[in-house]
Amino acid sequence: MKALNRKERFKKLFPDEPQYRLEQVNQALFSDAKNWDEVSALPSSLRLGLEKEIPWLSVEAKQLVWNSRQDTCKALLTANDGLIFETVLMKNKREQWTICVSSQVGCAMACTFCATGTMGLKRSLISDEIVDQYRFWKQYLREHPELPQRISNVVFMGMGEPTANYESVKEALHTWLKYTDLGLTRITVSTVGILPVLKKILEDPEWPSVRIAISLHSANQKRREEIVPTTVPHFLEKLKTWSHDYAKKLGNRRHHITYEYTLLNEVNDSEELAHELAKYIRGTASSKINVIPYNPVSGKSFHRSQQERTDRFKEVLRGYDLTVTQRKTMGDDIAAACGQLVVINS
Ligand code: SAH
Fold first, then answer.
1. Over the stretch 277-290, which tens digit does the pLDDT of each residue have?
2. For a 10 Å CB count at each end of the chain, is N or C smaller?
3. For residue 173, how far is its CA from the centre of ligand 1 (angstroms)?
4. Would you give the distance in Å from CA 226 to the centre of its chain?
5. Which residues contact 123 (CB under 8 A, 6 or more apart)?
């Protein structure tokens, strides 16, 4: 059975409290308070009740590891039921922080090159557990005043497939948008591309129009089927159609679609495939390509694309006048980089 989130538990435990209390509670959760006792806006009897019944944070840090450059920190978090998942803090270009959050413990998508896929899916996170990855890092930063304090961006590029946990992800997005300074374009949901859910995103009036990144990894249907097993027949054609629907609804410079492309040596990094990708992307609505260097995963036979192959691949794309960025590899020495997140849950 799915665990109740804070809002549901609050209503159940304190049915006689006026409606505005819940709003005060939410505000408190995003204030500088470190525990219920410090929330002076609430009556002390309620604070005591909350202290007993609802943990201030729904997750507990089990382990924190900084990389050698001290620009990336990975945290292992323990949920109420003992399951462990990961979240990552990364310094960005603006010397602020981007946090990489998980939406599930493990993942069912089984992308062939990804570490998380090898765990299978343990369970989806409830919205509090997603929201609290942000709160966890905020609290951590407050305890370390020597570090920059602002979390300016959130990316759903930790464990799990966010579109397979739609409702909880949506609720977490609404919570951050309401109670933090994160705006729509500062949050990116990265997805393997589950077409019915992508469609739903366009139809659901309550889905906040945060940025979307699609994990493409190949614009060749057959090759994509080989490396991303959830690829359905005619995926690429259907995705292209969807991209135009997206552009019609939300498209503007602030809402481009990013296509992620992890370069795997001699698998999807040939010149021919670069041309195929470029032609494909030119046929989609306005969009960007984000090339990701492969981060090694133990037990997998993939390799990072050689430098010359990577350079040639990007050169071909740029020849088509496409916007290509390359993701900086961060935290690979602490297994906190993309696709390296895996936890052995006993
Ligand atoms: N389930 C989401 C989030 C995955 S993590 C999705 O599929 O988009 C974010 C990105 O890292 C995805 O594009 C994913 O395919 C990529 N990735 C996975 N394993 C990787 C690895 N070992 N090296 C580099 N990128 C990887």
1. 999 999 999 789 99
2. N
3. 20
4. 24
5. 83, 104, 105, 106
Architecture per CATH, 1-56: Orthogonal Bundle (1.10)
Helix and strand numbers (H, E) in the chain are 10, 12
Q: What radius of gyration do the chain's Cα atoms show?
A: 21
Question: For ligand 1, is residue 86 a contact (CB within 6 Å)?
Answer: no
Rounded CA gap, 7 and 5, in Å? Answer: 6
Question: Domain spans of the chain?
Answer: 1-56, 57-334
Please identify, by atom number, the ligand 1 atom nearest to the C-alpha of residue 192.
Answer: 7
H/E segment holding residue 26: helix 20-29
262 within ligand 1 shell (Cβ under 6 A): yes
How confident is the model over 137-180, as pLDDT tens digits? 999 999 999 999 999 999 999 999 999 999 999 999 999 999 99
Q: Is the CB of 113 under 6 A from ligand 1?
A: yes
153: buried, middle or exposed (CB in 10 Å: 19+, 13-18, 0-12)? buried
The domain made up of 57-334 has a fold known as: TIM Barrel (3.20.20)
